[in-house]
Amino acid sequence: MGSKLYLIKEGEISLKGGNRGLFEKRLRHNIKDKLKKWNANVEKQKGRLYLHLDENADDDVVRKALSSTFGITGFARAYETEKDIEMIVETAKKVLKENPFGKKGSFKIEARREDKSFPLSSYEISLRLADTVHEMYPSLDVDLKHPDYTLHVEIRKKAYLYTDDEKGPGGLPVQTAGRGMLLLSGGIDSPVAAIRAAKRGMKIDCIYFHAYPYTSDLALEKVKKLASLIAPYLGGTRLYVVPFTDGQLRIKKLSYPDETTLMFRASMMQTAEKIAKERRASAIVTGEALSQVASQTLDAMSFTDSMTEMLVIRPLVGMDKEEIIKTAKEIGTYETSILPYEDCCVIFSPKHPVTHPDKAESRKHYDALEMDEEIDKAIANMDTYYFNPLGEEEISEV
Ligand code: ATP
Ligand code: MG
């Protein structure tokens, strides 16, 4: 077992009754899988997860990894020592050296004695450690109600010390709620939609429709970059790149000009459904938000929905662009999303797109395009990329 320790707080999973065991097992698996290069080991003690890693684990990478793992509400780098007050004091000094308090303000010692055989009470432990803090930070005051800094000590199987918790993302562990296929474009919205769906436990893989040379290789690189940025939240993700130039050209040539976007979206749904079925996914996820653009009216979405029997989930449907942008910034995709490489929708966009299509009428128009062959050809020629739970591209896995 490794010697670097993190304490992790689980979220809502503790409320999930009969499923609780499964959820916890999945969370433990997701954490271990993400940090396996440092031999991650996760054990549970009294409502907390104890993550042990090799001593050389990179703390910045571990922090990023934990703050993007759904199911975690908080975590802290912790230090383990024997249940001996002198050793606890020495460890406290080390903790405060590595995670220094500020020079001004107030602090508190939060001591918990689960092991009642430990000879000092929590109060006595607190007094002793408060002296230690005072020696190192003579200008800090004690404030038990609203301290700026807290040093925690817990006496359990061993003694554990840590400073303040960092926030985790909450939610439920991915892969506890089935699989979804995300339509990932290069825009701001779809990466956020992925995170929203994953937050409720869905396992997400991504599909990107590429229309080279109308959309450049830079656009593809941008989508790959977005996939790598969201992969940590998704517990790793596959990106299927569907070469759809011929499909797009066929639509442009044969459909009514005002309906090209609608027809493209219909063919995207059909293609996504085929890929999803082959890979045992049971939902399609998109970054659409109501009334954001012409194709995102209720009538247009209702038409595209009718192209698939699969559940279509639109996690952003009730979000303002401002809110979406805020989340995109938080998850770190915004800067990449606003890079100026056009996606194929823009290039093939009509000047006056239909906003309220008649479902039956548009269906007839779509069927007349006879897209099946193009769709099958595109799927046969698609490329697959894999991004692991740390966001690194891995060549080997397909
Ligand atoms: P985004 O910011 O996500 O690109 P948008 O506001 O630009 O969305 P649209 O271009 O109409 O809106 O796309 C709506 C949704 O359709 C996207 O969020 C995405 O889920 C899907 N989509 C659009 N273009 C593509 C594409 N080339 N490949 C895969 N999915 C796409
Ligand atoms: Mg877009």
Number of domains: 2
Q: What's the CATH topology name of the largest domain?
A: Rossmann fold
CATH level-four homologous superfamily name of the largest domain: HUPs
Major pleated sheet: 9 strands, mixed
CATH class type of the largest domain: Alpha Beta
CATH architecture of the largest domain: 3-Layer(aba) Sandwich
The gyration radius over C-alpha positions equals 26 Å
User: In what range is the share of β-strand residues?
Assistant: 15-25%
Q: How would you classify the helix and strand content by structural class? A: alpha/beta
Low confidence ranges: none
**Secondary-structure element string:** EHEEHEHEHEEEEEHEHEHHEHEHHHHHEE
As a percent range, the share of helical residues equals: 25-40%
Number of helices: 14
Topology at a glance:
Blueprint: E1 4-10, H1 20-34, E2 41-45, E3 48-53, H2 59-66, E4 72-81, H3 85-98, E5 106-113, H4 122-136, E6 141-142, E7 149-155, E8 159-162, E9 166-167, E10 179-183, H5 189-199, E11 203-210, H6 217-234, E12 237-243, H7 245-254, H8 260-278, E13 283-285, H9 298-305, E14 311-313, H10 321-331, H11 334-337, H12 344-347, H13 359-369, H14 372-380, E15 383-387, E16 393-394
Parallel strand pairs: 5-6, 5-7, 10-11, 10-13, 11-12, 13-14
Antiparallel strand pairs: 1-3, 1-4, 2-3, 4-8, 4-9, 7-8, 12-15, 15-16
The structure holds adenosine-5'-triphosphate (ATP) and magnesium ion.
